[in-house]
Amino acid sequence: MYSFSSILNKQKTYPILNIIYSLSNCPKSHYDVLNLPRTCTPKEIKESFIKLSKENHPDLNKDKDAHSKFLAINESYKVLSNVESRRHYDLGLIPNRTEVYQTGPQVYNRGKENNQWTDNTFYANRDRNKDDMYMQKPYYGIKGQERVSNFKVVVICLALASFIVGLQFLAIAKSATFQREDLQRKSQEAQDSLNSLKRKVEINGNQLQIELLNLKFAEQERRSGRKNL
């Protein structure tokens, strides 16, 4: 027969074993796949993805599970690298924390909902005391190159786009002006040629009239001379 103490010890041991078993069988989150805490920064996510994807690439790692791990790493990075998808994913990870009370052979559970607005495991609710330290580190992997704010990036992109559009308008305006000047030049050349031709026709026409009159007078004089004979 079992003694009272042995029964009591079993009652204390089984819940612990059940908890350990349940934790070991929990599916891995995207943070677990990348070996990162839920408070990790985007830079840490990128670095871990690059490191793990190299280690588990099927072409380099011949382990039978390498392919499935590689797919899981890519899926985790796809979700966590995007701010919006990460926020939705984090909201789906909110657990119901359970406080366990054991009195003798009875076990009572009291659930306590987690508040996503104050949970410090979320990146948005992280401890910001170390943000300045991370800001001093090279964000793009280049020493001395700090992270550029999104606002500055937007302003630079808009300025660059405006500059390019301005150059295009200037090129179009210059092209139209050049074409107009070229047409005016050709039109003036044609007009000059026409005026020159008119002057030549007028000059040649007057000379021709004079020659015809001279011939007519000469013919009249010749006829008059014959009559006098």
From TrEMBL:
Name the source organism.
Answer: Diabrotica virgifera virgifera
State the gene name recorded for this protein: LOC114324977
Q: Which residues cross the membrane?
A: 153-173
SMART domains for this protein = DnaJ
- Tell me what this protein is called: DnaJ-like protein 60
What residue stretches are annotated with the J domain? 29-93
Q: Which PROSITE patterns match?
A: DNAJ_2 (PS50076)
Which Pfam families does its entry note? DnaJ (PF00226)
Gene3D superfamilies the record matches: DnaJ domain
Q: Which domain of life is it from?
A: Eukaryota
Q: Which UniProt keywords apply?
A: Membrane, Transmembrane, Transmembrane helix
